Amino acid sequence: LPARLRDPALLALALPLAAALAFSDETLDKVPKSEGYCSRILRAQGTRREGYTEFSLRVEGDPDFYKPVTLSAAPPSYFRGFTLIALKENREGDKEEDHAGTFQIIDEEETQFMSNCPVAVTESTPRRRTRIQVFWIAPPAGTGCVILKASIVQKRIIYFQDEGSLTKKLCEQDSMFDGVTDKPILDCCACGTAKYRLTFYGNWSEKTHPKDYPRRANHWSAIIGGSHSKNYVLWEYGGYASEGVKQVAELGSPVKMEEEIRQQSDEVLTVIKAKAQWPAWQPLNVRAAPSAEFSVDRTRHLMSFLTMMGPSPDWNVGLSAEDLCTKECGWVQKVVQDLIPWDAGTDSGVTYESPNKPTIPQEKIRPLTSLDHPQSPFYDPEGGSITQVARVVIERIARKGEQCNIVPDNVDDIVADLAPEEKDEDDTPETCIYSNWSPWSACSSSTCDKGKRMRQRMLKAQLDLSVPCPDTQDFQPCMGPGCSDEDGSTCTMSEWITWSPCSISCGMGMRSRERYVKQFPEDGSVCTLPTEETEKCTVNEECSPSSCLMTEWGEWDECSATCGMGMKKRHRMVKMSPADGSMCKAETSQAEKCMMPECHTIPCLLSPWSEWSDCSVTCGKGMRTRQRMLKSLAELGDCNEELEQVEKCMLPECPIDCELTEWSQWSECNKSCGKGHMIRTRMIQMEPQFGGAPCPETVQRKKCRIRKCLKNPSIQKLRWREARESRRGEQLREESDGEQFPGCRMRPWTAWSECTKLCGGGIQERYMTVKKRFKSSQFTSCKDKKEIRACNVHPC
């Protein structure tokens, strides 16, 4: 058997609603005592009716091969006892080697091994039941067919089914992967090339796969794949995972896989890569689905890719050898494929976060099923299909060159140029302005276990709020130091510059060259690669009699500058003058540029800034300052650095007192005789704020007394009548001509306005405006007039 088929298979015994069963009274006691107990169980028989199908042994999956099986019968019927046993084909069961596989107990309260026949399983306690479950581990490959038998017990009578629904024959399958990726790959007859876009939609989330969903670290690793010929296989069902596939499956690292793909350069046209996704699922309006573009041609018309579902033992999704060439010698327009996870066969874990458990020997790549293991997050006792965890869409976006088929699919389908090499495109929208990425953090794992590292960037501006901006964090799988193929302590160096001139003009000297560090190690370690090289050099080995013999060059002097660019010199002396007595022409000093640390813009030595002063105000907006002192010497030059800084400060708002208008004129006395009172008012222009002074009174009263009131009512009434007639006459005159004033004629008084308050003392107003000004009038003596009187003075 393939090794994976040796996982426990689930067996369940249950009973449908049964008609009356006819059993014989033959019991185990009637079997001869001399025979083995297991064979006595197998020989215990009962009579049954023809066509009996009420009790059944149900096998999940394909019943003709070793696959996870279920021994089942549905409620509401019941049975009191049962027996399960597995025999090799054509064996009697009286010997230990006749039995095949091993049973495993799930629930000890329900099931147990038989004491007299340990290879069989029976009930723990006789009682009414409708279903039992046990595991059965299949025997090794080469065992041959296996017969699974079940018996039921009712009223202390055993009934065994030698054939039919309570007996199943299971035989080996040559390959459990027949037909999975064994479709024939035809030679491609298409012309030109085609360009495709792969888009990966991860649907794996807590909502779609709630069982044991890993909330903290769920992700899809970086997508890795390629377009290739039929002579190269990245991965396939029934094959063994390469080291590159293993590292993707267990660590989420695409580095080794990419290296393997690029080594097959003759068979590969494009390397397919897309970024990892942390977390595994987010709405498309929050994060765009990752995508990658690739090309195919007549020879390399297949595409394969994979990505790890993390965390997991070694589970992935992907496509293997997807053919994009059609029988009509064209290129496939679109491929949409739902994906279920597959097992790389390198780790034996059964849950998302199982500890590392290498599979030895390595097993073949296989799709996961819902009956692999009860602890699996995809387990379904009914053996249903696994809910898809991702969808991949492959769309043709362009074609180049002369095509064999007649009509292009659309006008934009053929493009002027198609670059086969891969481009690393940035999918950040133009409306999102980011800072540069920070360096990668250290790996979260200090060992060779799986870990991750992170880098960040800052979103500076989002110019269009309707266009979502990608994440500001990026994650990568990683391992501790010394475990990864990528050495985080590697420096990136520039090319060597040209060699310097030889140190002497005659004979043997020295020369040097330099390079610099372009990028320091990502793990923060020190770069140990050399930045300078020296070697010997020889100039004019046979020096003439006029040549000098010089000493070696001395050490370089200190740089002439304390910062920035300067010059340095070195010297040597004439050791022996020319033999012909001529003057030595060899140089005795050399100068070259030197670079010191970058200069500050001003040669100042300053003290630290002082603390900020108190705010210049006790409330509201003010200013505060801080100072520093110049500590450097005056001979270093003028210092233009600021020595004082000023900034705004804000204290609690200042109190605002109540503000009122001026007092109005006193009103008329409210009585025509006797004691009365008159009032004056003022209005509130601003209410007090922030604890300011409250508003004082807005109405004042004072007493008034016009004359004594007469005690004779008749005389009093007469005076009132006279006063009323006098006022009426005056009003009539005003209405006819208006009131006469020096220099102008006035319009009559307006009616009194409504009282400003209903009680507690309000005011009324009336106005008299100028009707006509005489030519000789002075504007100062002829103005509009206003009168105010009290009203509603009774208390509220």
TrEMBL record:
Key words of the record: Cell adhesion, Disulfide bond, Extracellular matrix, Glycoprotein, Metal-binding, Repeat, Secreted, Signal
Span list, region Disordered: 721-741
Segments crossing the lipid bilayer: none
In this chain the Spondin domain maps to: 184-377
| Principal cellular location given in the protein's record | secreted
Output compositional bias ranges, type Basic and acidic residues: 721-735
- Cellular location(s): Secreted, Extracellular space, Extracellular matrix
* A GO molecular-function annotation: metal ion binding
Which Pfam families does this entry report, sorted A to Z? Answer: Reeler, Spond_N, TSP1_spondin, TSP_1
Q: Which residues form the signal peptide?
A: 1-22
Q: Which domain of life is it from?
A: Eukaryota
Q: GO:BP terms for this protein? A: cell adhesion
Quote the subunit structure annotation: Binds to the central extracellular domain of APP and inhibits beta-secretase cleavage of APP.
Q: What is this protein called?
A: Spondin-1
Its lineage opens with: Eukaryota, Metazoa, Chordata, Craniata, Vertebrata
